């Protein structure tokens, strides 16, 4: 509950930044958040916080609100006119009429919702039901598409369900840790502290890091495989080749618990470590060492005395045009060696955002369905329709993130509702995204921060609450569900995301032809609000009611949380799923009995060949650009950008280049360079970094148009790093290849 004014108070909540999901204790006095400290009882962090988490209170200072927060609903009636402040009733009535009109004229797929892994599970649930249940479109996708969708597809393809098998506690039991495509030290700092602690306690533990850059994480490794961008599948296949050749695999596990090994063995027969060394730019001996350590849990063991290997991975595998293949090829290694389902062993994807996992659980994506049901399965669609009390859920996959904006640019998606995310900075090919935002008939932006670049395109701006003001739940990387609690009142007229969506949905429900089945609002819905004498599909009066409806939808599913009420979360603290009715706790580790959620109970090897990056470097665009996070900033800096001390680590954006590349061209550190791809260009100061190989470049993702305009950049050069990236995506996960683009560099020669 929100604390009364003038009372000093402490509230247990969860950090809203990364997927580690650290528990925080929020201190507030007189309705103002005055401090944050780590929650010593939270199993994700045991009291620790990183630089971002420990400065949360500074980003929530009330005096910042007039500059950075959206405070009132605003509408504009013409693109050329400024938005005017309006009441919530006027804003939502207007939007319901506009959506109803567009749907009546062009059909349900002419509207789309682009939401966010920053949202709470309850927010996600209502948006998903609004699109798929009320309107009858699967056009609901999220910025988690840019983050974890390849991990989802990789798990489903091999293990049968989107269920990360491991926990942070496995770090303490691992003999070998294999980190691929993750600068854990910066992107998941509190997990990295645990890795450092484990290594200090057990110096024999081996750490292998696979990354094209020599990051802080790679510096700490026993073996750094500094491979060429996008060549991970070749590396993993070559490791399996050597494991087979040297009898390091676990034939008994393969025979009893998996299918598809013969096809995979045939595929990797040709990928020798020598061949992969050429593709990946690595030493053959290093590939062999990595394979032996992975298979046996470090040096000095034999197959009979195998020790546990844990792999952790993130955007380097996911943000790729072959992200699913990369995830699956890594999971293949675990299955081949029986390195799964026991303490310290298994594949463990790290989620980028605080609640990318919760969004997956409610099925809040264009190709997913609630509670890990399958959109292509008619029985699953009928089950969800029955639970929601609607006639059906459409079968056709909706438009995923990039597709939704491409469709808007073509005029097919006419109304875009964007909530809690900033596509005008974060999606690839920014020129295309901005054309889409201009072409759409109606752009609704539901947002806490007016500093988001997308706000400039909003026909309707709906002010939302944010961290410190919201109630609900999030799920972190290890399937642990934590409560987010309000400490203070929201500024201005800001409302909770789920409440805005539900209020809009109720109004739209009155205008659309009835899609509800004769039994009304479905068996799960709480009784309460009515719509013209009949039950509405959105009767919620608090976030807990939404949670309870979501819980019920998971009954009998692999992520069953029917036993996890808010009162249990209150009593026992954060819990891992599954947590079915009657359980006394969640599950630390999945697949301990080697039974998988597939038709035959066996895991499946994936035999997908190596494919190079989508856009090869050539003479015109000779540099391989990659993008990523910095230690002390978060996404587009809506929050962290308001905390001056967080700029101490990296005060401004730059392009990192190998010193030899700078010297060869006669450029110096700090010189302004124009970076051009086939889609746009960008002007940034150069910085020498020997963490990159020659021919490679790195730009952080955080800075966007506003900063770059201030540096004298013009036109497209203001669009931030995603003015350069390409909208090509993985055919299974639909995740775009944000980790690689071919670029050329020249001196900027600005006036
Ligand atoms: Fe927050 Fe992630 Fe830092 Fe933990 S590690 S305090 S969740 S940003």
UniProtKB/TrEMBL annotation:
This is Putative Nitrate reductase. Residues 8-64 form the 4Fe-4S Mo/W bis-MGD-type domain. Its EC number is 1.7.99.4. It comes from Thiomonas delicata (Thiomonas cuprina). GO terms for biological process: cellular respiration; nitrate assimilation. The keyword Iron applies. The keyword NADP does not apply. Signal peptide: none annotated. GO terms for cellular component: membrane; oxidoreductase complex. Its cofactor is Mo-bis(molybdopterin guanine dinucleotide); [4Fe-4S] cluster. Coiled coil: none annotated. Belongs to the prokaryotic molybdopterin-containing oxidoreductase family. NasA/NapA/NarB subfamily. GO terms for molecular function: 4 iron, 4 sulfur cluster binding; metal ion binding; molybdopterin cofactor binding; oxidoreductase activity. Keywords: 4Fe-4S, Iron, Iron-sulfur, Metal-binding, Molybdenum, Nitrate assimilation, Oxidoreductase.
